[in-house]
Design brief:
Layout (H helix, E strand, L loop, with lengths): L2 E7 L3 E7 L5 E7 L5 H12 L3 E7 L2 H6 L10 E6 L5 H4 L24 E4 L2 E2 L5 E3 L3 H13 L4 E5 L8 H11 L4 E4 H4 L5 H28 L7 E5 L5 E3 H6 L7 H17 L3 E7 L4 E7 L2 E2 L1 E7 L3 E2 L2 E2 L5 E8 L2 E3 L5 E5 L5 E7 L18 H7 L6 E2 L4 E2 L2 H8 L5 H23 L11 E5 L3 H12 L3 E4 L6 H8 L2 E8 L4 H16 L4 E10 L6 E5 L5 H16 L7 E12 L19 E7 L2 E9 L8 E3 L2 E4 L4 E4 L3 E5 L5 E5 L1
Parallel strand pairs: 1-4, 4-11, 5-6, 5-9, 9-10, 13-25, 25-26, 32-34
Antiparallel strand pairs: 1-2, 2-3, 7-8, 11-12, 13-14, 14-15, 14-20, 16-19, 17-18, 21-22, 23-24, 26-37, 27-30, 28-29, 28-30, 31-32, 33-36, 34-35, 36-37
Helix pairs in contact: 4-5, 9-14, 10-11, 10-12, 11-12, 12-13
Length: 657
Amino acid sequence: MTLVVAVDVGGTFTDFVFMDDDGAVRSFKILTNPRRPEETIVRGLEIIGARVSEIIHATTIATNALRGQVGLEIPRVALITTKGFRDVIEIGRQNRPRLYDQFFEKPKPLVPRELRFEVNERTGPSGEIIVPPDPGEVSMIAEKISKANVDSIAISFLHSYINPSNEITVKKILAGRFRYIVASHEIAPEPREYERTSTAVVNAVLMPLVSRYIGSLEESLKSFGEPRLYIMSSSGGLIDTREAVERPIQVIESGPAAGVVAAAELARMIGERRVISLDIGGTTAKAGTIVDGEIEITGEYEVGGEANYGRIVKGSGYPVRFPFIDLAEVSAGGGTIIWRDEAGALRVGPISAGSDPGPICYGRGGSRPTITDANLVLGRLGESLLGGSMKLYSDKALEGLSKFGDPYEVSLEAIRLADLEAARAIRLVTVERGLDPSEFTLMAFGGAGPQHAVGIAEEMGIERVVIPPLPSVFSALGLLLADWRFELRASFPRDIEGAFRELEERLLKRLGKVDLFIRYADARYVGQGWEVTVPVGRPASLEDIARAFEERHLATYGFKVDNPVEVVTIRVFAIVRRRKPKLKAPAGSGSASPRGYRRANIGGSWIDVPVYWREDLGVGSHIKGPALIDEYGSTTVVPEGWGVRVGSYGELLIERI
């Protein structure tokens, strides 16, 4: 028997979920080594101790590099661009994240000016080659780059999204001398030279880093039979290591994407049409939406910048034009640190205790109280985690929380603030997208998700909550539930249906077999500055796209205008199905009794709360709140006025009663 292993490296824990030949799954968690995550993976595989055929991995290497994590040195990158456009990545869009801050400094360009080179070439806006590149000039530039000890090269020419011939010519000249080269048309064949150039540069920065990481990880895996390695992409599909090295911008949001994929798959299985995915782990809370089985996708992201209450602050980072699952992320995880500001107000985040030293209650040297410490002293968590293998020290947590006042009052207030912060993330992906959160089911997971789910639902006016099976490792389970997903796009198509078919034919030729094509279009009113992404049916027509665009525009912005609509970019995702794990019904009885009682503060009152073990609950089991449902990696908190029913896959359906 061989196993397929999913590994999700988080800020606090690394989650392992593995599937055997029959589709049965098992799981466990271990603390992350943030400085050497590959060592954590090896340690987990040693615990599994069986032959592994495939490893599916969600990695934070790209995100950590762009956020300047200690130990990850940014590679030296050269940029080759059209004459006159050397400074495009420095000029940018002149966005000011803090409008009235006279001392704001724009993010430092990833390519210093001395490593930006101009080529006397020009492609017209209709794709005509006005000036081809001179091979002699390019060879002279290559010589200068060689002497500058550069790790990788980005090429970005004007209007290459219409005709990439000049970029292709220059890349061929450079290919024999340099290992890492990326041309902008290969990853972002879209208009707007700044965003396209920024995307190419970010990709060039990440290529050596991701290549080294994957190479090191594959070397470490040789002792386990050299299993095949696949990576989760930011758009919610799996890619192979070659794709990850050539287009590493795909893995910037690798980890968070897996949880939304798992939520979408479980929503399909249990018949939930509109779902909010809420992943609360040790560091952050991440929210996304799923409507009729479709995960919301965005075409632009800004990396390495600032976040303000879950929003990416435009102009504070480096824009990337590539499909990402539309997520809002806030600092409201179990390891989020509780503190008081200069005015004495209690605050939570944005700093997290991580896994080293972790929350005070872990007993690993942590001295700053966290949300996990607050849940523990209020009795919402038991005295151990991970099936009893990890002891929690409530006395130490009490001591740490006492620095800020009465520890119980501080804990209640901190949990309330964390719930408000997570609710803010939900508003960003619902209310600000023209969606009513009260019409959705909240699916909460991650180690801390089940503890906070109902409190957040009450804040948002949500009447139905689902806690999935294996909630503490649910994102890792999402890696096993994901399919292959590859993307191509084209800009300003003259024949929309013909252009979609051409992209699909290219993907089919590349992959050999495709189970499903998913189409999107970026559309706008003629003269409008930015686009809205809409799904596209078959056959594709401008009339249908315009109708979908106006509906989305009205829902998002509250108005529409009587202007013609144009399609700027079309994109196609090719889906290749994989064998999925089998989520089986729990073996427990339908009338389980509590294993005991725990003194806990739920809803502001101290009571003796019945404590159930989740594995004891069979399909159809009913529980009325207040109740606590403990399991391997988490605890579900059910306040008074809510009831729980166990569904056919072991999911906990929590509704008002």
